[in-house]
Each structure stands twice: as C-alpha cells, then as structure tokens.
Specification:
88 residues, mainly alpha, Serine Threonine Protein Phosphatase 5, Tetratricopeptide repeat, 7 helices, disordered C terminus
C-alpha cells in the first residue's frame, strides 16, 4: 500500500501528516517497531525531526519503546564505528 501511495503527487503531504496528537507516520512506525514501514517512509523522504504535541520525535518514540532496529535505521551508520574501522 505505501509504495502505491508514495507514487502519487500528494505523497509528501500524506507521508508527514500528523494525527490529532501531532504524531507522524514515522513516529508511529518507530514507536510500534514497524521496521519495514519505517524503511519505506524514510526512502520516501519522511521528516524525522517533526515533534508531536509533547515535543517528541520519531527517534524519541523508538528509544522510549526500545525499538533498537528502528533506532539503527533512523540513525544510519555510526561515525564512531567508521572511525574505529579506519583507525585499524
């Protein structure tokens, strides 16, 4: 469903559209541990810095819910790991 939706001209508006509490689809996917859904949202250019009514972002939601796979996906490659790899 997401792939078909993101192909339409209104995809950007839907991709980052908050609910009544200000939670975006990326926020809800991260909080729920929906890695595949979050991946598709990120590939479509979802904005991760949008905060809900309490000031929490998708990163906060994933951390609070202990969704480490979602955190890894949103954070990308760790610069510390790249530094350690290049230092050897």
């Amino acid at each position: 469903m997401w792939r078909a939706l993101f192909g339409c001209p209104c995809a950007a508006a839907v991709r980052d559209a908050p609910d009544v509490k200000g939670r975006t689809p990326a926020f809800l996917a991260a909080f729920g541990g929906r890695v595949e859904c979050l991946g598709e949202l990120l590939a479509a250019g979802a904005v991760l810095g949008m905060a809900d009514a309490q000031g929490r972002t998708a990163l906060h939601a994933a951390a609070y819910a202990r969704r480490t796979h979602c955190l890894d996906m949103m954070a990308g490659p760790s610069p510390l790991l790249a530094f350690a790899h290049n230092a050897t």
